[in-house]
Design brief:
With about 120 residues, the chain is mainly α. About 60% of the residues lie in helices and about 5% in strands. A two-stranded antiparallel sheet has the order 1-2. The two termini are about 30 Å apart.
Length: about 120
């Protein structure tokens, strides 16, 4: 599992890690039931605090991406396609909301914004 932390990112470190792990799970790069590095190992590998990696894993457990098995560690959760679909729909809606806001702040009409969206859908 490859994770890159960017100090120049606006996102906090824990969010950068969470987003990258989620993306790798959704893309199938980290597969169902695959064991993740221990909290301490991930902290060592990334040269960050154990507190940060604990938060990452707790958040991912709460969101249903990974499961904790007592005495064994953390594993990628079995895919719940409906849950993933809902989560991705929510993320898409947030992104579209940001696109519309940015477009309007730039002085674009709704038709211009829709045209830009259609352009990206055709690619």
């Amino acid at each position: 599992m490859k994770i890159i932390i960017k100090n120049s990112s606006e996102l906090p470190i824990y969010e950068q890690i969470e987003e990258q792990i989620k993306a790798q799970i959704l893309a199938g790069k980290v597969t169902e039931d695959e064991q993740l590095p221990s909290i301490r190992q991930l902290a060592r590998d990334l040269k960050i605090s154990v507190i940060t990696t604990t938060r990452v894993y707790n958040d991912l457990v709460n969101e249903g991406f990974i499961v904790s098995v007592a005495g064994k560690g953390y594993f990628v959760a079995p895919r719940n396609n409906e849950l993933l679909r809902e989560r991705m729909l929510c993320e898409m809606e947030e992104a579209i909301e940001q696109v519309v806001t940015n477009g309007r702040n730039a002085g674009l009409s709704d038709d211009d914004i829709i045209a830009a969206l259609k352009h990206f859908m055709e690619e």
